[in-house]
Amino acid sequence: MRMLTNANQFRVPGLLGKLGMMTSIRDTELLEQSLLRTLGPLLGVLDTSLYRLDDGQLLARVIHYHRSKVVEADGVARMVERIEEIAQVSDVQPEILALMENVRLLGKPCTRSFAGDMLTAYPLLGGDEVLGYFVFKRDHEASPNEDATIRGVLEVFSNYYALLDVSQRDRLTGLLNRQALENNFERIWSAMARPDSFHERADGRRSQLSGKFWLAVIDVDHFKRINDTFGHMVGDEILLLATRLMQATFRSSDLLYRYGGEEFVAIISAENEAIARNVFERVRLAIEAHVFPRIESMTVSIGYAEVDPEVLPVEVLSRADRSLYQAKQDGRNRIYDFHELVERGTFASPSYGETELF
Ligand SMILES: Nc1nc2c(ncn2[C@@H]2O[C@H](COP(=O)(O)OP(=O)(O)OP(=O)(O)O)[C@@H](O)[C@H]2O)c(=O)[nH]1
Description:
The chain is of the alpha+beta class. The chain has 2 domains: about 1-165, GAF domain (Beta-Lactamase); about 175-355, 2-Layer Sandwich (Alpha-Beta Plaits), CATH 3.30.70. The chain has 10 helices and 14 strands. The protein has helices at about 1-20, 30-45, 95-105, 145-165, 180-190, 225-230, 230-250, 275-290, 315-330, 340-345, and strands at about 45-55, 60-70, 75-85, 110-115, 115-125, 130-140, 175, 200, 205-210, 210-220, 255-260, 265-270, 300-305, 335. The strands form 3 sheets. Strands 3-2-1-6-5-4 form a 6-stranded antiparallel sheet, sandwiched between helices. Strands 7-11-12-10-13-14 form a 6-stranded mixed sheet, sandwiched between helices. Helix 2 (about 30-45) runs antiparallel to helix 4, helix 6 (about 225-230) packs across helix 7 and helix 7 (about 230-250) packs across helix 8 (about 275-290). The radius of gyration is 24 Å and the shape is elongated. Mean pLDDT is about 85; it is low at about 1-10, about 195-210 and about 350-358. The protein binds guanosine-5'-triphosphate. Guanosine-5'-triphosphate (GTP) binds next to strand 10, helix 6 and helix 7.
């Protein structure tokens, strides 16, 4: 009994340190990984998982954290850890799905036996909503002390996650903002080198996608005139409508950011240039065909470039932006691909200096 008290006293500064580290992170996905890194060792378990739901309460992402002991050549044993993000959420075992469903229905943690162990799931709460589940496997249930610790850490995580999420979103449209794009460039680029990490929802589930990626800058034409003629409130409403039209046209796996005032950045997956053009053309047409309140019609210009994971993100962005500028110069309401403009001789071929690795 005495030993337990001492162990708990010893653990408090460790836990505070881990919470401090967790809340120093500025990226929502790294924060999710950090939660597993915090709770796994704290509970003394080797496997912990996080199941994230999207806005539609569908399973969107699964992250597994695994620790194991490795004896190295010098005979010294070390703990190594591995974080794995699963794109194929359709592979989640039915027992785990059933456990999470019980947690959702009861609004509290649940435990069940699973493959000779106890499987415990805690809800991640955002207000009254379940945002996901923290799951761990062990041969016994959580003690009252551990239960209080897990609940406390999950509460800190959820509150901090909500704060981060707000700072990465544009208030008018709810889209991710420029800061989020810039913060996430490196992670997006490395994910692109692993095509299985981007997935598409079909029948409520997500499946693997492969292929190339394209970055587009989409800019409303003559938006200043709209503001000047009808005022900023109408301008805001038009931007919101244009956002909803774009969201409805893109797939859920495509990424859409509000980059600046009337400027948006989209990153999409497409097998080839013709398919990418087709996607952007659909966006242009959807906006051109829409009857907007007051202004009636509006158009957008689009410049895009292929994402090459070996080319700096800022360079890809600049290629798309230069192509957009050219589309504006040539009369607006049109789409230009950077390579098309290079082939046409409008732009010089990219030099080797631009293709450095980051
Ligand atoms: N209503 C509203 N206007 C905004 C917002 N952000 C930027 N703007 C306005 O968007 C306008 C953009 O003007 P410009 O950059 O000259 O571009 P444009 O008039 O669209 O012309 P082109 O891009 O050349 O077709 C400016 O008047 C900004 O004040 C916003 O959040 N709401």
